[in-house]
């Protein structure tokens, strides 16, 4: 989970107010409205990919990293905006798609993730990017 203070700062600095947390849980959600990976009576649903993304309020996406390409593809398909968290990995296969839809971003080098007990994880050896992305910016002719 992203440190809530970093989440608030990123929202403010990037001028984006998300309304639904797509990849959360009962214990770890940044917004009152969220999707969970497991059954949760307070969640909107169990699988964010089953939702109609363009019908939801502004999206916040801090997903398991193996899902980055799938999330980016879905943002482009639904032509929606989101506040999204990714590692800064320019050699990743999904990086060109990511780069084509970034509107504005912030890069973090410090520890910004919380352990289950609420303390900060050690700073990762990669940089983390939090960005406003817009799937409608991607050229479908590529």
Q: Please give the order of strands in the largest beta sheet.
A: 2-1-3-4-6-5
Structural class: alpha/beta
Shape: globular
Number of helices: 3
Superfamily (CATH H level) name:
Vaccinia Virus protein VP39
If you consult CATH, what is the topology? Rossmann fold
Proportion of helical residues: 10-25%
Report, as a whole number of angstroms, the end-to-end distance. Answer: 34 Å
CATH uppermost class: Alpha Beta
Give me the count of strands: 6
Radius of gyration: 14 Å
Q: Number of folding domains?
A: 1
Main sheet summary? 6 strands, mixed
> Into which percentage range does the β-strand content fall?
15-25%
- At CATH's second level, what is the architecture? 3-Layer(aba) Sandwich
């Amino acid at each position: 989970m992203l440190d809530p203070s970093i989440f608030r700062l990123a929202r403010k600095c990037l001028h984006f107010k998300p309304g639904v947390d797509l990849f959360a849980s009962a214990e770890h959600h940044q917004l009152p409205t969220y999707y969970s990976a497991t059954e949760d009576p307070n969640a909107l649903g169990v699988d964010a990919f089953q939702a109609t993304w363009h019908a939801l309020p502004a999206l916040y996406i801090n997903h398991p990293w193996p899902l980055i390409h799938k999330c980016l593809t879905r943002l482009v398909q639904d032509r929606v905006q989101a506040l999204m968290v990714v590692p800064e990995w320019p050699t990743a296969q999904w990086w060109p798609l990511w780069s084509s839809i970034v509107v504005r971003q912030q890069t973090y080098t410090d520890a910004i993730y919380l352990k289950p007990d609420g303390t900060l994880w050690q700073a990762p050896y990669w940089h983390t990017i939090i960005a406003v992305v817009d799937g409608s910016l991607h050229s479908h002719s590529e």
